[in-house]
Please model this.
Amino acid sequence: EKAFSQLRRLARVPDDCVNTGWSFNSLEDGGGKGGSLMAFVEDAYIVKELSAGDHKALLKISNSYCKHVRGGDTLLCPIYIHFRDKASKRCFFVMRNSIGRGPFKALYDLKGCADDKLIEKDGDKIKAVHKRIWKVPMWCGQCAWSEARKRYYAGKLEAASLQIEL
Model:
């Protein structure tokens, strides 16, 4: 927590920034593969549930992550709080909402790998339709794909070819 409190101080984020404006009942599916729940705290912050593995990984890298973000030369979204709900024992983190709430002309989830994807286009959410080994017809060519799968795949290609000048 000491490392994250330094990031809060640097960004002038109060320690009680998420004490109001959301509840555990307002958590919704974040839309990712992991199925993590998330909630928006006004337009300023996002509270996101962590899997046990992600919780352990965040604990392991928290000091180096915070040092990197404090350096200022990063596109990583700052995480301000990492906590466990005592009642449910679930783990969460709070990060700055760097993108707002939409609707968006285009919203991408870019990780720099094959997981890059288009999340929203012209205000419409893009449903993730994964090509899994047990979905045999999907392996028989695009003629067997649903319109939703075609749209999702086109979004992945668009995300992969996106060039952002910094």
Summary: The chain has a mean pLDDT of 90. Residues 137 and 143 are 9 Å apart (CA to CA). Residues 52-70 form the longest helix (19 residues). Helices lie at 2-11, 52-70, 147-161.
